[in-house]
Amino acid sequence: MERTHVRLEWPLPHVARVELHRPERLNSFNTTMAEEVAGCFEELHRKEEVRAIVLHGAGDRAFCTGADLKERATLDERAWFAQHHVFQRMFRAIAETPVPVIAAVRGYCLAGGFEIALNCDFIVAATDARFGLPEVTRGIMPGGGATQILPRIVGEAWANRLIMTGETIDVHTAQRIGLVTEVVDPERLLSRALELAETIAANAPIAVRQVKQAIRATRSLGWEEGRRRELDLYAACVPTDDRREGVRSFVEKRKPVFRGR
User: If you write DSSP's letter for every residue of 209-233 in order, what string do you get?
Assistant: First the structure.
C-alpha cells in the first residue's frame, strides 16, 4: 500500500523501521497521517517475520509534535470526535503491536507525539530531544494514553508535574526520571536503536512476544492475576522448538538459531 506520510523499510533481517514522514510540519499528524500510521502497524501485526520495530521521525527537528492544530482548528465538535477516533486507532495499533517497538526520539517530542513514544516499549533519545505534554495550555488534556502510561514509567509525581504544568523537559531530565533508557549523539540515534532491535530480533521470538504480553498485563491486572498470567505465558514457551534450541545451543557452546516455532 502506498503511503504519503509513513515510510516502512526493512534495514535488517526481522527488523522493521517505520518513519513518521511529515518533516515540513515537524511530523505532526493530521487525519490522513494517523490513518497511515495505524494501517502500517496493523499490517506489521500480521507479519510473522517481524521481530522488532524502530519508530522515528523524519528530519532532525522533531520526532513528532502531536496533532496538527491548524487542521483541528477547522473542526466542529462532531468532526473533532470523529478525528480522535482515528487517532485512537493509531495509538492502539502501536501499543498492541505483538513485538517490541523502540521509539528513537530526536528533537521535539510533544503532545500526541510524546504519546506515540509512550505507546512504544521503550525510548532511546538523542541529546537534542525535548519532551512535553502541553495540552492543558490549549484547553484540552492528553487523550492518547499519557495519563495512564506515564505514571507507570516515571511515577505519579512526575506525571502530575509534566501533565499539569505543560512544561517541556530536556533529555537529561527525561533520562533521570526513567522516561528515556539511553541518550546518544544525534548522528548515532538510528544506528543505536537498530542495534537494540537487532539484539531483540536475535532472541527467541515466541519468548519475546510472551514477555511483552506479560509486562503489558501489569497495567491492567492485580498482583495475583498478573502472576497467573505470567505463568500461562511461560508455559506456552516450554513446548517450543526455540526453547529446546536455546538450551541445546548453550550446552553445545554455540549461538542459538531461533525460528519462531
Answer: HHHHHHHHHTTTS-HHHHHHHHHHH
Burial 192-220 (b: 16+ CB within 10 A, else e): bbbebbbebbbbbbbbbbbbbebeebeee
Secondary structure of 118-142 as H, E, C letters: HCCCEEEEECCCEEECHHHHHCCCC
User: Residue ranges of the alpha helices (H) in the chain?
Assistant: 31-45, 69-72, 77-95, 111-118, 146-154, 156-165, 171-176, 189-201, 205-217, 223-237, 241-251
Residue 122: phi and psi, rounded to 5, are: -160, 165
* Contact residues for 205 (Cβ-Cβ < 8 A; gap 6+): 14, 51, 99, 242, 258, 260
Catalytic residue check, 135: yes
The region that residue 177 occupies, defined by phi over 0 for left and psi between -120 and 50 for alpha, beta otherwise, is: alpha
Using the Cα atoms of residue 22, residue 25, residue 26 and residue 30 in order, give the sign of their dihedral: negative
Distance CA(83)–CA(213), nearest Å, equals: 29
Exactly one of 135, 156, 182, 252 is catalytic; which is it? Answer: 135
* Bridge partners of residue 170, in order along the sequence: 130
Q: In the 8-state DSSP scheme, what is residue 14?
A: T
Integer CA distances (angstroms), 98 to 33, 41, 85, 132, 141, in order: 22, 10, 22, 27, 28
From the candidates 19, 35, 36, 115, give the one annotated as an active-site residue.
Answer: 115
pLDDT along the chain (261 residues), means of 10: 90 97 95 96 96 97 92 83 91 96 98 96 98 89 88 94 96 98 98 98 94 83 64 68 70 79 78
Rg (CA), the chain: 19
The answer to whether residue 115 is catalytic is yes
